[in-house]
Design a protein that fits this description.
The chain is α/β, with parallel strands linked by helices. The chain has three domains: 174 residues, Aspartate Aminotransferase, domain 1, CATH 3.90.1150; 96 residues, Type I PLP-dependent aspartate aminotransferase-like (Major domain) (Aspartate Aminotransferase, domain 2, 3-Layer(aba) Sandwich), CATH 3.40.640; 152 residues, Type I PLP-dependent aspartate aminotransferase-like (Major domain) (Aspartate Aminotransferase, domain 2, 3-Layer(aba) Sandwich). Helix content is 39%, strand content 12%. The protein is built from 18 helices and 16 strands. The longest helix is centred in the C-terminal third of the chain and has 20 residues. The N terminus is likely disordered. The structure holds ligand F0G. The site of ligand F0G has 16 residues, from helix 6 and helix 7.
């Protein structure tokens, strides 16, 4: 593998083995991956869109109209330069009113529907046994098939509870890729998190349809080496947020399930973006083109023993999350912790109105017009950048565009945090706030305090759900392309101050002047 060059497609074919067929499939898919929201030919002529034959025009439109608007704030590049300096080059320290287009996260930033707002007025705030809880519980059960449902205030609260029970020194949690809070909660318990992303997932600019897949060979090998008794849980993150928002195929979920089952290792889904993942399965995985999304979702969860969920993503809620599972004993242990940290089991850390918003959002997100628009709008931005030669993760992910900072800024070494430098440049130039997903977020130090870099240096531009329109997205691509054209002016960064856990939230940096 030493001579592997990610841009050499033929070599990639040999290396990736079975990915070849998929790749050919994807090339076809890309022909339908249109360079604007407007299709160059009727979508209905493409096999993967034949499903929409009766109701799809050439232009994929936002499947909503806008009832309520919020202002965005305009300022100048000079002002933003000062703001960035005052924020020590850390986007988390910038006030949101100083941001023009906020792509820091797709979490909790969704526009709720009129239905969800109506549900909020129906919220019953009883401490115990609220009807809002039972509506919430029913929605989660209906969608996932998992019978025991525990509300939490957000995803990481679910993680904290789960890993407090299952974690501990000498244990390994295996995953396609753990998200940062998931990894932090695992490590905080004393256990280790081990990512096993498939070969295709390691090369940002080489497209493949399911780059979020777990490497099942590595999984089997790891189990053989360490012993199943030291592996309390396998976690599949769908879609794989830290690895480019890339989906996991049903086939892979099935295979991971089989391996886990053979060794009695429970499988949990980190389900934040379950509907986006299901849409990719429908679009790209043979045999699913005509399967309704709720059925795909049901099948996906049918292989799981449980899930953690942040309802701030694919439930369009501004706050909320849950744990769901089959195992009664584990659920009871979780509830015992829940009462200490989150609240009584029929509200978790949430208000009754939040439970209503989540229950409604979970169903809304599976609407196929919504998912088509959602995935298409990310691809639209990605393809505009590809056309301009900007190095981006390919193919487009489900919730974000990921710039490949190593390719974008080859003159900045990884220990000068090229991703973070690019985040700063996008903010100053166009008021766009993104986030580094690279060595600042995931880097570690060795014994000599030398940086052990992350596998990838990415900048994530996460698109909030139902919030920005096509002209906002056009503006974003314009800014990125302008920054790309003067990329040589961008300087690396050095860390002034950092905390031992999740340092990217609070880190202070300054530029390294040439
Ligand atoms: N798992 C994944 C895959 C996530 O993306 C997140 C959050 C969490 C768990 C934790 O959920 O925020 O509700 O506690 N991701 C956000 C992001 C923060 O910006 O990607 P949470």
């Amino acid at each position: 593998m030493d001579s592997f060059h990610p841009h050499d497609k033929n070599h990639f074919y040999r290396a990736a083995g079975t990915a070849i067929l998929h790749y050919v499939y994807l090339e076809k898919y890309h022909q339908a991956a249109l360079l604007s929201f407007t299709a160059p030919f009727p979508l209905s002529s493409h096999p993967h869109y034949s499903h929409y034959h009766h109701h799809c025009m050439k232009t994929i439109i936002e499947p909503f109209r806008i009832k309520s608007v919020e202002p965005i704030y305009f300022n100048t590049a000079e002002a933003r330069q000062l703001i960035l300096e005052k924020a020590f080059y850390n986007p988390f320290l910038i006030h949101s009113e100083d941001v023009l287009i906020d792509l820091l996260t797709d979490s909790g930033t969704s526009a709720m529907s009129s239905n969800q707002w109506a549900g909020i007025m129906q919220g019953d705030e009883s401490y115990a046994g609220s009807p809002s809880f039972f509506r919430f519980e029913k929605a989660v059960k209906d969608i996932t098939g998992l019978p025991l449902v525990i509300p939490t205030h957000q995803g990481r609260a679910s993680e904290k509870i789960l890993f407090s029970i299952m974690g501990g020194k000498g244990k390994y949690f295996v995953s396609n890729t753990l998200f940062d809070t998931t990894r932090a909660n695992i490590e905080f318990s004393g256990a280790e998190g081990v990512d096993m992303i498939c070969e295709e997932g390691r090369y940002p600019t080489v497209p493949a349809p399911f780059k979020g897949n777990m490497d099942t060979v590595a999984l089997q090998k790891f189990i053989d080496e360490k012993g199943a008794e030291h592996i309390p849980l396998c976690i599949l993150t769908v879609t794989n947020n830290s690895g480019g928002g890339q989906p996991v195929s049903m086939q892979n979920i099935r295979e991971v399930h089989a391996i886990c089952k053979a060794h009695a290792i429970p499988l949990f889904i980190d389900a934040c973006r379950f509907a986006e993942n299901a849409w990719f399965i429908k679009l790209r995985e043979p045999g699913y083109a005509d399967t309704p999304v709720p059925e795909i979702v049901r099948e996906l969860f049918s292989y799981a023993d449980g899930c953690t969920m942040s309802a701030k993503k694919d439930a369009f809620a501004n706050i909320g999350g849950f744990l769901a599972m089959h195992n009664e004993q584990l659920a009871q242990q979780c509830r015992n912790l829940l009462v200490i940290t989150e609240g009584f089991p029929t509200y978790g850390g949430l208000a009754g109105r939040d439970l209503e918003a989540i229950a409604i959002g979970l169903h809304e997100v599976m609407d196929e017009h919504y998912l088509q628009y959602r995935i298409r709008s990310i691809e639209y931005l990605t393809n505009k950048l590809i056309a301009a030669g900007v190095p981006v993760m390919q193919p487009a992910g489900g919730h974000a565009v990921y710039l490949d900072a190593k390719g974008f800024l080859p003159h900045i070494p990884v220990d000068q945090y090229p991703g973070q430098a690019l985040v700063g440049a996008l903010y100053v130039h166009g008021g766009i706030r993104g986030v580094e997903i690279g060595s600042l977020m995931f880097g570690k130090y060795d014994e000599q305090h030398q940086l052990v870099p992350a596998a990838l240096e990415l900048v994530r531009l996460a698109i909030p759900r139902r919030v920005y329109t096509q002209s906002h997205i056009d503006y974003v691509s314009e800014v990125i392309i302008e920054v790309f054209n003067k990329r040589n002016e961008i300087e690396g960064l050095t860390i002034l101050e950092e905390s031992p856990i999740l340092r990217h939230f609070t880190v202070k940096l300054s530029p390294i002047k040439k």
